[in-house]
Amino acid sequence: MTQKRHPQTLAIRGGKAQTEYLEHNQALFLTSSFMWESAEHAEALFAKKVKGFTYTRTANPTIAAFEERISALEGAERSVATSTGMSAIQAAFFTFLKAGDHVVSSRNLFGTTAGFINGVVTKFGIEVTLVSQTDLSEWQAAVKENTKLFFLETPSNPLGEVADLRALSEMAHAVGALLVVDNSLMSPVGQQPLALGADISVQSATKAIDGHGRVMGGVLSGSEELMGQVAVYCNSCGLAMSPFNAWNLLSGVETLSVRMEKQFANALQVAQWLQTHAQVKAVYYAGLPEHPQADLVAKQQNGGGIVIGFEVENQEKAWSVINRAELFSRTANLGDVRSTITHPWTTTHGRMSPEDKLAANIRPGLVRLSVGLEYADDLIADLQRALA
Ligand SMILES: *Cc1c(COP(=O)(O)O)cnc(C)c1O
């Protein structure tokens, strides 16, 4: 008799391929292909009459274990792992779209995703309309007869603007479109897009799921039906995750819940301290009680996440804070156990024109933090010194 287990237990104990050696940790199956007992066995495997593995681009036990544990956390029937977050986003678009289709997407996107949508997707005769992260009427007005997909990430990075997933899923489904949500910033511990009506949750596993800045990976989660199609696309286009990366990411999955709970708490403490600092003009963090969408945040998120934006006088001051920080790493990675600090105006958002940046409220004095697992008072002391 097995009782129904909590996702957190399944993230540690679920989806393991056990060999005859009774290894305690998930084994790393570092092999590109698998052998067959006989020609008959091979025929049965290829015809999918028996379960098993043939070739790692298609499926591999270590990658399958990772996918199963992500499914437990996302509340998904099935997940498909890919080489990077960007290949997961590519699969979410091109599995389901063809020339002549139309996409409605939030304007507030991770820089490479914005480049992919504007520079690659549109090359294949797929039309895209960019709309506000928060104004539902803009989404409604953008919908057309050929709209097949809604795309967004929430909360936005680094300003913490929250998109209403329940409302957008209803709007998408009313016109037969899929809602695809990039959940990289919250991870399934902070937000479960599928439970809020999204069809696909996609993430960069490079970020919070790894959590230790080691390897790259991506993963899509959803229904068996949709993920079956995604798996075919990924196999055809060769987007597979490396088994070595899946093996590393499995240890990330095992500690994801505790890491995120503590990092969200640290982030809230840092954000609230920043609010009291005389040199800080504004603090953007989805977990603050004063957040303009606090009711929506409470409804769809478990906590405010790990990313904080805060504004100082100008670029000179922002650079001085960044250069004087000793504990915060000067790097763009997010979701790591090590806290990081960046200047969006000249790095993550550097490719946008100054006008576009200002329209998106990205100003030269804005600093972005990703809050890690260090002791919160030490992070605050570091910022205090850097701001002085
Ligand atoms: C990093 C990131 C991606 C891209 O993931 P990679 O693993 O770097 O390819 C996509 N979306 C968001 C929100 C990200 O932060």
TrEMBL record:
Checking CDD domains in the record gives: CGS_like (cd00614)
Q: Which residues form a coiled coil?
A: none
PTM-bearing positions, type N6-(pyridoxal phosphate)lysine = K207
Q: Which UniProt keywords apply?
A: Pyridoxal phosphate
User: Does the keyword Transcription regulation feature in the UniProt annotation?
Assistant: no
Q: Which Pfam families match?
A: Cys_Met_Meta_PP
Gene Ontology BP, a term: transsulfuration
Q: Which GO terms describe its molecular function?
A: carbon-sulfur lyase activity; pyridoxal phosphate binding
Q: Name one GO cellular component term.
A: cytoplasm
Q: Where are the transmembrane segments?
A: none
PANTHER family under this entry?
A: CYSTATHIONINE GAMMA-LYASE, TRANS-SULFURATION ENZYME FAMILY MEMBER
| Protein name (database record) | O-succinylhomoserine sulfhydrylase
Q: Which organism is it from?
A: Neisseria animalis
Lineage at the top is:
Bacteria, Pseudomonadati, Pseudomonadota, Betaproteobacteria, Neisseriales
